[in-house]
Amino acid sequence: MNQEFLITISQEKLSRDLQEIFNDYSYLGIFQKYGSCCFAITDLLTRTLKQKGYNARIQACGCKLQQENVQYFLGYPGYSKKNQVEGHVVCIVNEHYVIDFGLGNIRKYYDHGFYRAIACDLVDEGEILAKLNTQAGAKLVWEVKWVNPAIERELEMQDETVQKIFRQIEHYQENRIKYSVRKAWPPVQGKPIIAMQRSV
């Protein structure tokens, strides 16, 4: 796959905002560092969306991927890696959409080219939150059959760290042009190529 963010929702403004957030997180290395930490990256996403005025909340769930004869499970009991808390979380937006930025373990352990993030409609069919078929033939289902009560505690423990990262994201968003200039013309020997001059 050459597309990193699969957006299937029809709400245009939210789609644009999510794409911008995705681009920001990619630029800042958030996916590379926290893409496999669904609790942290979903907390960050939820805060970012709230800042933009959306009704956003964290929802614990499990995500099951099936492709041909292979199944991969995120957040189900017995499938977590060593030192990982069992469970998975997504962001629910306006009670209509499911946004999953925490698919890093699928990329790491199943398909290195899989999407970093997916945004789809909430279906709310009993225990099923959302379901999606990709063009590559993968079938995904997000469901709430089992929720680890330890997830809430894990989110609380990560709160201070997430706050620090969120402030960095805010700083970038407030100074986007400066960051773009810095990327286009990186400093040489610790000094910027373009220096600001005082007007006289």
Largest sheet: 8 strands, mixed
Instruction: Indicate the low-confidence ranges by residue numbers.
Output: 191-200
Structural class, by secondary structure, is alpha+beta
Tally of separate helices: 6
The percent of residues in helical segments reads: 25-40%
Following the backbone from N to C, one meets helices and strands in this order, namely: EHHHEEEEHEEEHH
Distance between the termini: 54 Å
- By DSSP, the count of extended strands is 8
Average pLDDT, rounded to a whole number, is 88
Q: What Rg, in angstroms, do the CA atoms define?
A: 18 Å
The percentage of residues in β strands lies in: 15-25%
Shape: globular
Give an overview of the whole structure.
By secondary structure, the protein is α+β, with helices and mostly antiparallel strands. It contains six helices and eight strands. α3 packs across α5. Residues 191-200 have low confidence and may be disordered.
SSE topology:
Blueprint: E1 5-7, H1 12-27, H2 30-34, H3 38-51, E2 56-67, E3 70-74, E4 88-93, E5 97-100, H4 104-109, E6 117-121, E7 128-133, E8 139-143, H5 150-174, H6 176-184
Parallel strand pairs: 1-6
Antiparallel strand pairs: 2-3, 2-4, 2-8, 4-5, 5-6, 7-8
